[in-house]
Amino acid sequence: MRPTLDDTRPIYLQIREMIEDEIIEGRLLEETQAPSTNQLVAFYKINPATILKGINQLVDAGILYKKRGVGMFVASGSKQQLLEKRKEHFLREYVEPMHKEAERLSISEDELHSLIFKRGGHPNED
Amino acid sequence: MTSKQSLAIRTQTKEYSSWSLWYISIYLLIYIGINVVTYFTQGEITWTFIEGSFSSTTVFMLIVGLLSMGGFLNHYLSTGLTRRIYFRSVLFSGILVTVVIVIFTILLSFLIHGVLLATGWDQLYSDRIMENQSMFPSIVESLSYSASILLFFLIGWSISFGFYKHWVQGALYIALGVAITMITSHPLFESILPIYFTLFFIGFYVFLLHRGTRTLDVSP
Amino acid sequence: MKINFNQVSFTRKQKTILHNISFQLEGPKIVGLLGRNGAGKTTLLSILTAFQQASNGTVTLNNETTFENEHAVEQMIFVRDHNFEYETEKVGDYIETYAKFRPNFDHGYAHQLLKRFRVSKDLEVAKLSKGMASAMQVVIGLASRAPVTIFDEAYLGMDAPARELFYKEVLNDFMEHPRLIILSTHLISEMETLFEEVIIIKNGRLFTHEDKEAFQQRGYRITGDEQSVNEFSKDKTIVATQQLGPTKSVMIYGSFTDDDQRRLAELNLERSFVSLQDLFIHLTEEENEDDE
Prior knowledge:
A: 6% strand, C: alpha/beta, Alpha-Beta Plaits, six-stranded mixed beta sheet, 14 strands, WH_DNA-bd_sf (chain A)
């Protein structure tokens, strides 16, 4: 879990993303219990209504479901669903702007490919 | 009467009673001390328990009244009570404590007189005391004492009420209190049943304080 | 729990402190009452809790007028900074004088809380440090479990760890005993995550009352080339401006539409969110301070 929250973005969104990350990264497995509202309130010191708002969005999206009297559980198939959603997001937020910027800097397709391949090597910025 | 009202009266009375107990104990010690001194200097007891208690009890109740405003009112509202409950509690407790002090003082003076009789020290009473038979008061005197003591309590309360609003009002209530005390204790009026005057002014103050505290602003 | 302020004004000595304030609160909920010093927060709360009477308008709790209403006032507790100079009682006895009149008072919880705040029951109230006195007040406020619990800058004098503990206990106890909790403060950055709704008072007037997140999202910052920024913001409410060379950054208060999104891309501007604290500071700034 992320230790702190960013005060410029809606908190319920951050709660939602945090649970999504836990699922994507495999720390929260399908058909296991998600952290309870009480645990999240105690951890982040946030109003329970705010946390519920984030959790309810996940329920609406089919990522979490409620077991009566027990709590929230991670739905099966949720990891796959999230991965697809995040891939779309990755395309829109990272790949497309990257292509745009590459065009602006007159970086050719081949050059771009080799730059991406070199990732983690020696970034030539700095 | 609601249960909160009666609980508030009991709490208020307990508070006043603990002050009164201190007061009476100190008064008793001073009474004994002074009579021991006069016995050694003049060879007689010049002062009965009841005589001195009247004037000092009026002063004591004046102070109790003075202490009955701001702090208490604020505390009542803070604990989720109303001004009405505050007003009734202070008034009833004031009356109750007045009656209890007067009865207690009379009983004590009987007891002291009894001790003096038993030990033969009653011979030490000064001539003035023997002549006036002022060892203990009559029923009429007791009632009149009680009324005067209560009036002083209300005067004290009204003065602190005045100052609670504004110092000018406080000063006016002091002037009013002094004027009323002069009237009720003036020999001219004393001959024509001063208790009626006293009762009239008690009613007047109760009315005034009731009206005054009904919608009073309290700084939180 | 339903609180209703209907066109409430408060005037004393020819000075109007509150102007025509109307809002409705329905609990259980934690609400932040925000405003600068002197904006009228304490006056508003003391009218609600019947310490003072409104000059105009009505204040009700569950549809009953609160002023001099025994049934209404017993459901509210108003915790605020208080002077204990003359309080010779011990902490334990002092708390007892409150507990007596509070039907839901939880003695066990009060005892635990005192321990957590490290305040001994045997200390004389007048001799408590400022932080300890605040802690004692908070203990009374929480342990009374009043359906409407109000803390008016109750943390004054508490150090940072004690304030953290206070926030934690407010949330814990709220979950176990849901009720309407009103927290009045100007320490927004520390407390904003506690609020579900905010009420903002500015110069004795109601500035806004809404869901905290909704309010916060109505504020945003636009950064970019000066001309483009001016173009984008010409018909918007600008609450703050910053400039660094040719780059300009403005804080805007208002809704952000799809059309705005399109123009943002066209003008090549960047949009970022602002914290509640920043938004509050700029929205409640006095006009003459802007000139500085």
